[in-house]
Design brief:
This protein is an alpha+beta fold. Among the domains are: 47-57 and 313-383, conserved putative lor/sdh protein from methanococcus maripaludis s2 fold (Beta Barrel), CATH 2.40.420.20; 105-180, Helix Hairpins (Orthogonal Bundle). The chain is 29% helix and 37% strand. The protein contains four helices and 19 strands. It has a six-stranded antiparallel barrel with strand order 2-9-12-11-10-13. Strands 6-5-3-8 form a four-stranded antiparallel sheet. Strand 16 and strand 17 (354-359) form a beta hairpin. The longest helix is centred in the N-terminal third of the chain and has 36 residues, at 106-141. The protein is rod-shaped. The mean pLDDT is 86.
Length: 389
Amino acid sequence: MKFNYLRKDFRFGRKRIWIMVVCIVALVGIYIIWKWPKDVVPDAPVVVVEPVGKDDVEIYGDYVGRIRAQQFVEVRARVEGFLESMTFEEGSYVTKDQVLFVIDQRQYRAKVDKARAQLRKDSASVRKAKRDLERIRPLFEQNAASQLDLDNAIAAYETAVASAGMSKADLEQAEQELGYTWVRSPISGHISERHVDLGTLVGTGGKSLLATVVKSDTVLVDFSMTALDYLKGKERNVVIGQKDDSRSWQQSVTITLPDNSTYPHQGLVDFAEPQVNPKTGTFSVRAEMPNPERVLLPGQFTKVHVLLDVREGATVLPLRSLMIEKGGAHVYVMRKDSTVERRFVELGPEFGNNVVVERGIVPGEYIVTEGYHKLTPGMKVRVAPKPAS
């Protein structure tokens, strides 16, 4: 009896162990299922988007230019003689026709006196020949004088008139040469230092260059542009160097001084060479610039900033939205369903932190400007809220 009781107790213990094992397995299974990683739907990336803009874009070009005086005139002696006096201060402002130098006038005054005396003599001969002709003509009509007498009287009168004309011309030439002894300024401007000393023989037999006068209240700026610049301008119907009153802008010029400051006055391009230099592939362009304070000096080099074109209503993108690859430039465009599309665009000129887009996108579309590096085409995105202003 005791054996049967022990056997029955053993079965009951084994059954209880199995129940405990099953419970433990069940608990472990529940725990594993509870801890098993579930499929997680990733959050859409957050990006910054901006609408594609439209603006009037000014396109500039930068070149190296050189300042040139609008007028640079040499003052030369036109008659020979010794330089007697100088009537100006070197480096000062002189006016047109102001007397600058005086050349020895004695020989030229003598020529004037001689020519004037000869003219008086010839004028007297004209008057005598005229009176003789007036006496002979009535006598010839009355057959009291021969044809030969009349012809001689006419010839004498005409010869006297011609001689008087020559004497008058000689007097004018002598007076002109006397006038050249006063050397005058051909233009208004600032004069250089004298190139000769007083007492020097000047003119055809000596030094003729006495000084130079520079008109620098307006200066010219010379610079060179490439043939490619010209072709790009033609594509936009802009002819470099020609004023076009049909447009709202002109080819203005701003220059930078050697101290990197910007010159306060603007100029305009007024001329372009009609041919390209085959050695350099460039052509010369000229701009006229006001210089009332004489800040710009002839011969000075400067940086030239030229307005080449104004693109009205151009499509504009910020440069930070572009991705440049070998195949070209592209941007991410956000559709209405918040998915993104990769779009290739054709770029135009850059200005500031923006760039003109020729084709590939239109104003009003939204492009991703920040966060596009983590995007793939077709991905859904979330737009970051605008920061409070």
